[in-house]
Design goal:
- By secondary structure, the chain is mainly alpha-helical.
- It folds into four domains: about 60 residues, 434 Repressor (Amino-terminal Domain) (Orthogonal Bundle); about 90 residues, no CATH class; about 90 residues, Serine Threonine Protein Phosphatase 5, Tetratricopeptide repeat, CATH 1.25.40; about 70 residues, Methane Monooxygenase Hydroxylase, Chain G, domain 1 (Up-down Bundle), CATH 1.20.58.
- About 75% of the residues lie in helices and about 0% in strands.
- It is built from 20 helices and no strands.
- Helix 1 packs across helix 3 and helix 12 runs antiparallel to helix 13.
- The relative contact order is 0.04.
């Protein structure tokens, strides 16, 4: 049995005797020997204890293929809320072990990044919860409000805090080393435009134009013109975006984003819906969520609830998501709106 071989491998690698393992698990050495020979298996209720003892996952005890284990880890990151300390350390150790294998180094480090980003997001949600309570309990204390705003991702007026110069420096260096990486170029342009470094953005856009012949080049031309206050040029680029012959659904969703920033919400919703319709399955939920947010901004609670329900439908029918943190977050948003209507 594969589990027996894995227990033997883990025990041998750590220099642990069968007797020592048996004592730790409160079983006999003969029981451990039977597991390792494959003549019996541990009781299912013992699997968490064995996994914890070796600092591995239950999946690893079953000797699942590395690809399966990494996929399970990624699904686990996306499907649950905050990992407790023990869970986080276990997943972290698994991924560090995978990173030692050159075949899986890149994927393991990507999943470590996703794990830490997930944990940071979950802690920010906790900070928002306690921050709101702190503001009420302290009767609007300035420090409490500042911490709540920070947790909620607020705009920060201090330029030294909100500018992206360190990220831009890194992206510029990376783009010089990998000049054909379109994704890195677009992230660089996004941050240059956000920091209003528009002359530099125009220079990098010329490099993107050599690689990309889609709607993205006129999109960035619009964004640069808009940021520079060049209204006529911005309108010209917006019309170009609307009328160009480009079948990508991303163009429609991008137009939704641009019209949202202009507070032209009816047009934004129309483009979001068109973008969702254009997508092949599995369809993303972004358009439905964007429409829900617009409806909330407008005070259209019924419209927001309908859009969130559409998001739940897409999760269920397109992605098979019927439980977990992603679904619960949308359900909480609906519940909050329903309570507001009742008030």
């Amino acid at each position: 049995m594969e589990m027996g071989k894995e227990i033997h491998r883990l025990r041998s690698n750590r220099g642990i005797t069968q007797e020592a393992l048996a004592e730790a698990l409160n079983v006999t050495a003969q029981t451990v020997s039977k597991w390792e020979r494959g003549s019996s298996m541990p009781d299912v209720q013992m699997l968490p204890e064995i996994a914890t003892y070796f600092g591995v996952s239950i999946d690893q005890l079953f000797a699942m293929a590395p690809e399966q284990q990494l996929e399970r880890i990624e699904n686990r990151i996306y499907s649950q809320g905050l990992f407790d300390e023990a869970e986080e350390r276990q997943v972290e150790q698994q991924l560090h072990d995978f990173a030692e294998d050159p075949q899986y180094t890149g994927q393991a480090k990507l999943l470590l990044t996703k794990l830490y980003n997930h944990q940071a997001e979950q802690y920010h949600l906790l900070a928002v919860q306690y921050g709101k309570e702190a503001v009420e309990e302290t009767k609007g204390d300035r420090d409490a409000i500042s911490e709540l705003a920070d947790a909620w991702g607020s705009y920060i007026p201090d330029w030294n805090v909100r500018n992206h110069h360190a990220l831009i420096d890194w992206l510029e260096d990376y783009c010089r080393r990998d000049p054909d990486n379109r994704c890195a170029l677009m992230w660089l342009l996004d941050n240059l435009i956000d920091d209003r470094r528009l002359a530099e953005a125009r220079e990098w856009l010329e490099k993107l134009e050599r690689l990309d012949h889609s709607f993205r080049v006129p999109m960035y031309r619009y964004m640069i013109a808009q940021a520079a206050g060049e209204r006529e040029e911005a309108e010209l680029r917006l019309r170009e975006l609307e009328t160009m012959d480009d079948p990508e659904w991303c163009r429609a969703v991008t137009l939704g984003d641009l019209y949202t920033l202009r507070q032209e919400y009816d047009q934004a919703i129309a483009w979001y819906r068109k973008g969702q319709d254009m997508q092949a399955s599995p369809k993303y939920t972004d358009s439905a969520e964007s429409i829900a947010h617009i409806c909330e901004i407008r005070g259209d609670q019924a419209g927001a609830i309908a859009a969130y329900r559409e998001e739940l439908r897409l999760q269920r029918e397109e992605w098979g998501i019927i439980s977990g943190e992603e679904r619960e977050a949308v359900e909480r948003a609906i519940h909050k709106l329903q309570n507001k209507k009742a008030d």
